[in-house]
Amino acid sequence: MSNENNRKTWKQTWSYREGTIVTAAILLLGFALQAAGGGMVLRVAAFPWNLVAGLVFLAFLIIAFILWQKNPIIKWLGGVKAALPAILGFTFLVLLMGFVKQDVEPKSTLVKLLGLTHLVKTWPFILINLYLMILLGIVTLRRLTPFSLKNAGFFLNHFGLFLVLFSTALGSSDMQRLRMNCYEDQTEWRAVDTSGKTVELPVAIKLLNFNIDEFRPKVTIIDNQSGQIVLNKGKNQFELLDRNSLDLFGYHVEVEQFLESSGKVGDAYFPVNEPGSAPSAKVKVTKDGIEISGWVCSGSYVNQPEALKLNEAHSLVMLPAEPRKFSSELDIQTKSGKQVTKTIEVNRPFKIDGWTIYQLSYNTEMGRWSNLSVLELVRDPWLPVVYFGIFLMMAGAAFLFITGKPKNGGTEHVA
Questions:
Q1: Rg of the chain on CA atoms, in Å
Q2: The pTM is what?
Q3: In this predicted structure, what is the pLDDT of residue 105?
């Protein structure tokens, strides 16, 4: 330890000290370039130029390793003393992404200049990612030459991680995330990207039917003067109308009749099933021996909500019903000649011809009478490579678990 502390930097065998300096220099250079560019959003060239750049990078890495594999710098780059600081630098950027909300408008000039709201598309992220790929590429090639069975687990781990970083870096510009508005009985093949640009797709979608399954609505007590919800011990208090009696802020509420879909005629509500009809309930409210009866209704884009005035201070109101789940029945056609009818819902997407179709939203103002379904279409042609890299990492971990760590095999390379 004393020899390491007394050693001059950049002299003799490089260690963690030089690794930390190199990683810090890369990050500082990245943030300096980002600030000099005014916080610009960087984009990797799309296919085929990203693939050409990737192949050139691989060729350069392989040739450099073959020619200079015995060079002390190359040996150091293939060791843990270079890798660990680089991994910590990469982790630092990942943590920044967790603390700073991404893909939003920056609130300060400094945040904008450093690109903290879109870190994956900035110079520091690209440079540290490139540095990690170089380290992983070198250690993978070292494990490959000469290849032996005892090195298979480490090779699979490192090469798998290399593939994940390589494909995510190059494939970011090829990934498409689009938003499509589909109206019932209309065919749509256009969508918009995150910048609002309209994109014509090789997929045409017709919305056959949109369905919403709702929870029973909630009721609460509001202040007649302010219109605000009355707080119970500093918190909002809501009760779900899923039972015949309930207690709310000192009031006892009995549900005499509940209508899931209703319309008002005179002073009462009756069951109807027409666009804009809303949930309603006839209730009896008791407090301190005083009894009040009447109707409450959540309202809709057609009908006004109705509250039940309990006294001069308070009223009982029904809140709009919340969706339990919503789904879209779609007729999907592609340029390749495929045609399918599929129902999708949240967390149950459908994949076709490289596109994944997600249920995203609907017209919340119209609620369950919405004739609009908002879909998200995602295409990531590099995703199979990412999955293959993850599979290799899992295979490598399984191999190491079964065979055990090879002798003298894990101390000089990336862990």
A1: 31
A2: 0.76
A3: 86
